[in-house]
Structure to design on (134 residues):
């Protein structure tokens, strides 16, 4: 069911500071910040040869990363995103196996303009998992 690793996400308190560190200290290519109010985050992507790193900053009052950053004020690894060919088939298979699909269980459009879903970290060895349809 799983395809490629699309990205690894890091929650950060200040996306401008984190972007400058990746661009200037690590010499990486960093995309322009994208505000995603429906997801409660501002994102940039660090473009690597074989995958991407997503930097996430909270946006708005009800950001899903606010509690995580309260516990990890300097930031930290937040989720991994795997590609799937058919997100509805993947969701239905995971539901049957007992995994919890976060939110209302319906895919939303993510930062790449493709459908995404999130799976509860307690069902995946303490790791929040995002699925993105290819
Ligand atoms: C889609 C746009 C973009 C993209 O790539 O395209 C994005 O990636 S946006 C990313 C941000 N969106 C989300 O994270 C949506 C899914 N997340 C959630 O629904 C919540 O954050 C949730 C349910 C994972 C946690 O909710 P909340 O923070 O309200 O609950 P708790 O703090 O009580 O956490 C419960 C329990 O889970 C542990 N936890 C929370 N977050 C993580 C995490 N990122 N990784 C591992 N574990 C996590 C937390 O520590 C609690 O554990 P406990 O033992 O009970 O203390
Ligand atoms: Co993501």
């Amino acid at each position: 069911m799983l395809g490629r690793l699309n990205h690894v996400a890091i929650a950060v308190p200040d996306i401008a500071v984190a972007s400058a560190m990746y661009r200037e200290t690590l010499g990486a290519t960093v995309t322009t910040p994208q505000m995603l109010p429906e997801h409660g985050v501002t994102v940039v992507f660090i473009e690597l040869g074989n995958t991407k790193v997503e930097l996430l900053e909270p946006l708005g009052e009800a950001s899903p990363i606010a509690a995580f950053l309260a516990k990890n004020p300097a930031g930290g690894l937040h989720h991994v995103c795997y590609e799937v060919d058919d997100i509805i088939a993947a969701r239905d298979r995971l539901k049957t196996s007992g995994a919890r699909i976060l939110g209302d269980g319906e895919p939303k459009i993510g930062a790449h303009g493709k459908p995404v879903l999130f799976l509860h970290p307690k069902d995946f060895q303490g790791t929040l998992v995002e699925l993105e349809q290819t």
Residues 7, 9, 54, 79, 81, 130 surround cobalt (II) ion (ligand 2) (CB under 6 Å). The longest strand covers residues 76-84. The longest helix spans residues 15-25. The mean pLDDT is 98.
